[in-house]
Design brief:
alpha+beta, globular, three-stranded antiparallel beta sheet
Length: 181
Amino acid sequence: MAKKNTSLELVVLGLLSQGSMHGYELKKRVSLTLGPLSAISYGSLYPELRRLQALGFIDEEDQESEIGLTRRARISYKITKEGRDKFSSLLKEAGPESWDDENFLTYFAFFAKTASAVRLQILQGRKIRLQERMALLESQIDKTEKQMDQYTLKLQNRNLNSVENELQWIDELIINERKQA
């Protein structure tokens, strides 16, 4: 299974490929891009920025900002050519990590920059993961339904409905992707 920072590396490089940003703006853009449940902490973001900088994938640039009557330097980060190359190579990697729960939305957020064949591979991998999850949930409900109280059963059915809805969405995306190919 891929490490969490593969996803963080991808999202940071992807967002910086759209333009320079300071840490606060990057943190905010992650939430806007991936949704509020994907928020990252400064404790994760800044070490990742330092790591990417040490690898030569990003550089710092000072920007002055005005706060009240004072001016202070604010550090922004910009992607380097090496960082663009790394981002491009990450988008070409369509292995199991790209369709797992931890990373799928991150890869999906940059589908516009991903080759069609890779998009289709990721979507098909995600579909298989969801089908496996649905079979597991159905099996668990069948085995334990009589032992569950009404609320636990409703929760399990909600989880099943959620997977069914995502599967339907993925099927629509696969159909559209094949039409465009």
